[in-house]
Design a protein that fits this description.
Blueprint lengths: L66 H4 L6 E2 L9 E8 L9 E9 L9 E5 L7 H7 L9 E6 L14 H7 L9 H22 L8 H14 L5 E6 L1 H12 L4 E7 L12 H18 L8 H17 L2 E3 L2 E3 L1 H11 L4 H17 L3 H10 L11 H12 L5 H14 L4 H4 L27 E8 L5 H10 L3 E9 L8 H13 L7 E2 L1
Parallel strand pairs: 4-5, 4-6, 6-7, 7-10, 10-11, 11-12
Antiparallel strand pairs: 1-2, 2-3, 3-5, 8-9
Helix pairs in contact: 5-6, 7-8, 8-9, 9-11
Length: 519
């Protein structure tokens, strides 16, 4: 399972990273009357893509083969509003299918903040994770202090945001889904959830066509290597956060001879069989929040168990009695989503979560929790949802195979057993088992053999990417160097001056920290 978070209001930043499967939007059409046994239990409902041309499809540039793409010239133009910190943007073409470079092309969007110090060290490519988060936007909030000798370059990967985007259901259907029960209590609710996910996948295929078959991480790193060539860098220097660590590890696997200094913050799991699940990471964070709550006298309980019970009692209540918030309602799914969103943060965000929970529990006021749920779902005040809700499942389901609906049910049961507090409420992950596109084969074991040191950063209190993932990634990469940050919240680079000092030293002076360094 993968989870994404955005910004937590006035809390400290909770950067985009792996996320729980995005709730698939439901159609406004009624659920099928078929019995649950009539739905496909194993294997995906694969369908051929229609002949559609989503925004960003284009004829390939002049020339032949992949050389036609390598011959492009980046035309940077101003696109920011801060004259003291200029931002430039550009667009390039890449092949939709690298095996057929003379056929359809798609468009990628880039942004950069030019180096302020000379001589320039070239480009530092950055990616904030997701999958599906905007690297163009990331350039605007990436912590660049100490890296002024680099052009900071972000790009929206294929299928994402300003690049040729995956498109699916509209906002009304997506809004309807967020009120659907993600932890069904009956066969009818379970069937409705499955039908919703199936229709969502079909809508993505109908509107995105063949693009849905070509948004894999492997293709994204081939795009990244082309971008490295186009900016004129011999080696790739790269900083990836959360899912962005998978992009970096894949690059080391496919292009080890072109890897420069790679830094991976908040490592994801590179192996499909995790000894610890992401749900367990959120369970840890929730219990840490409960302990903090007791210490801070947050009025939710006088012990860890009392605080956790207060939260789960609220969730249980919302299942049968959602709270009205203006013309909307706070459902159980939204109440769980709100808590997950703030668990990306540390104690600064926890204070606001405690206040929002207290208002919901004592005053039936769900406004604060609904606000946090909207942050997670990338929903604005007008009810518009961010494209990330489409880019995320498209990449995730293409990258990862599954064993169908029956296996998803078993995974949910395992999560409920391993994470008994939050696991039963996380819900069933039917998105990929009912996705209409076949998953790609993952690469063989990723080791990055022959690369310079690859810095892997793990946070002991990370909710979305448990610390064990960083340990495993650093061990699996032959040149992996582990930095451990003892803290709370998702990711470490922005949170720790110690981590930043080690990373900046490596990126600017090629001084790799000692493996096992602690902050």
């Amino acid at each position: 399972m993968i989870i994404i978070a955005g910004l937590v209001g006035s809390c400290s930043v909770a950067p985009i990273g792996p996320r729980r499967p995005a709730p698939a939007p439901s159609s406004s059409a009624p659920a099928s009357s078929a019995s649950p046994t009539e739905l496909q239990e194993t294997g995906r409902p694969i369908k051929s893509p229609p002949q559609v041309r989503p925004s960003g499809f284009a004829a390939p540039p002049p020339g032949k083969g992949l050389d036609r793409y390598r011959a492009q010239r980046l035309a940077w133009s101003p696109c920011g509003t801060n004259q003291d910190d200029p931002l430039e943007c550009a667009a390039v073409l890449v092949p939709l299918d690298y095996k057929q470079p003379d056929k359809m092309a798609i468009t990628l969007s880039l942004a950069r903040r030019p180096a302020k110090l000379q001589p320039s060290k070239g480009s530092l490519f950055i990616n904030p994770g997701g999958p599906g988060a905007s690297g163009v936007d990331y350039v605007g909030y990436f912590e660049k202090s100490g890296l002024d000798s680099f052009d900071i370059v972000g790009w929206d990967p294929r299928g994402v945001a300003r690049s040729t985007p995956v498109t699916c259901f509209g906002g009304e259907q997506l809004a309807a889904y967020t009120e659907l029960d993600m932890s069904p209590d009956s066969d009818q609710e379970d069937l409705a959830l499955q039908e919703s996910n199936r229709r969502f996948g079909e809508s993505c295929l109908q509107q995105s066509g063949a693009l849905l078959q070509h948004v894999s991480t492997e293709e994204t790193v081939r795009d990244l290597d082309l971008l490295r060539h186009l900016v004129g860098d011999r080696k790739l220097n790269y900083f990836g956060a959360s899912y962005g660590t998978e992009i970096g590890a894949y690059y080391a696997h496919f292009f080890p001879g072109r890897a420069g200094r790679l830094v991976l913050d908040g490592a994801v799991s590179l192996t499909p069989d995790d000894e610890i699940s992401q749900t367990q990471g959120f369970e840890r964070a929730l219990t840490d929040f409960a302990d903090w709550c007791v210490r801070e006298s947050c009025r939710l309980g006088d012990s860890q168990q009392e605080v956790l019970s207060a939260i789960t009692d609220l969730w249980d209540s919302l299942d049968s009695r959602p709270l009205e918030v203006g013309d909307r309602v706070l459902t159980q799914t939204l109440g769980v989503t709100a808590v997950i969103q703030v668990l990306y943060d540390d104690e600064e965000g926890w204070r606001l979560l405690a206040q929002a929970l207290l208002l919901a529990i004592t005053e039936d006021n769900g406004q604060g929790l609904l606000y946090f749920a909207d942050q997670y779902n990338v929903r604005d005040d007008q009810g518009n949802f961010g494209q990330l809700n489409y880019g995320f499942p498209a990449v995730r389901c293409l990258d990862n195979s599954d064993e169908g609906v029956a296996d998803a049910k078993q995974d949910a049961a395992d999560d409920a057993r391993m994470a008994p507090v939050i696991g039963p409420y996380i819900g069933l992950d039917y998105t990929c088992p009912l996705w209409p596109v076949k998953a790609r084969k993952r690469p063989d074991k990723i080791t990055g053999k022959g690369t310079p040191p690859i810095i892997v950063i793990g946070n002991t209190g990370d909710s979305a990417t448990p610390y064990e993932y960083a340990v495993d990634m650093a061990d699996q990469l032959e040149s992996g160097v582990l930095i451990t940050y003892r803290g709370q919240g998702h990711l470490s680079y922005r949170r720790s001056a110690c981590v930043r000092e080690l990373v900046i030293g490596y990126l600017t002076k090629d001084k790799a920290p000692k493996d096992g360094a602690k902050c």
